[in-house]
Amino acid sequence: MRHRHLAWVVGACVAWGGMGISGVAQTSPAEQAVMQAIDQVNSAFQQRDVKKYEALTTADFVRVGSNGRIFGRSEWLKNVAAPGAARQPGKYDQVSVRVFGEGAVVTYRNTPMGADGKPGPVGYLTRIMERQAGQWKLALAQSTDLKPPPAPTGAEPQALPAWSASSAAEKEALAAFRAIQKANADRDVAAWERLSAPDHAIIGADGARMARAERVTALKAPATATAANPPPGADQDVRLMVKGDLAAVTWTAGASRSLKVLARKNGQWQQVLQQSSPIVAGKK
Asked: What separation in angstroms does the CA of 177 have from each of 55, 181, 197, 240?
């Protein structure tokens, strides 16, 4: 069966499906280049080619696993190099690519394949890409499984260095993030809509997807015990990176590790994607 997903993009509308990332017809050259770079990243991981994988990632690369563990580039490269059975190429569908200047956000449904040829846990994978000197590189990736992930094994990855906003773009994007979080907490529909792009989408920690209109309906509804306003200061470990006209914010709230992607349009930052992954305690 051929799955299709419609992604409404600023300046373009892209619709495609199937089981591959590259080679999709009727996409722009920039979108094709982004997908080709992702193919190269996936191939490097499959082949345990650490040098190639490192060359295809930015120096500040961050990987958030489906169990909520967060890795910097040097820590993640240990996973790339980890010995074991031959890695098989995965299968992909529901692919969407949105390009914003020198930044791009890609989301697709991923079905990894085990060494025995059996499919692994299905989930959504988001990648933030940055074009550096003409080459698209992976800056951030986050996975969310459709079923609860197993408890991770091994030691916790080394903590990322402390972060604080320094550039004007980082400060502007962080202010927009704070405004969105406040609109959520206050159930301020007008402010939330102003700060949310028409194609904004949400992927919950359980892999459930929610469209912008569904979130607006939820904000308009009376707060319940399970949808109460978050307590002040609930967001922890907030860090942000600006890639072209995209900003990616990661943070921890309760038992979830979340990603919010903002796009700068006409000088205004708006959210275009939010994704969460559960934080699963490791085996003792």
From this structure: 30, 6, 13, 10
With respect to residue 196, please indicate whether it lies within any of the assigned structural domains: yes
Q: Is the pLDDT of residue 284 over 90?
A: no
The two three-digit tokens of residue 84, written as one number: 């074991």
- Do residues 278 and 254 touch, judged by C-beta distance below 8 A? no
**Model-level pTM greater than 0.90?**
no
Residues 131 and 241 grouped into a single domain: no
Q: Indicate if 206 and 123 belong to the same structural domain.
A: no
* 187 φ/ψ sector (left φ>0, alpha ψ -120 to 50, else beta): left
Closest CA to 153 of 53, 258, 56, 79: 79
| Angle, CA of 199, 29 and 249, to the nearest 5° | 40
* pLDDT tens-digit readout, 238-279: 999 999 999 999 999 999 999 999 999 999 999 999 999 999
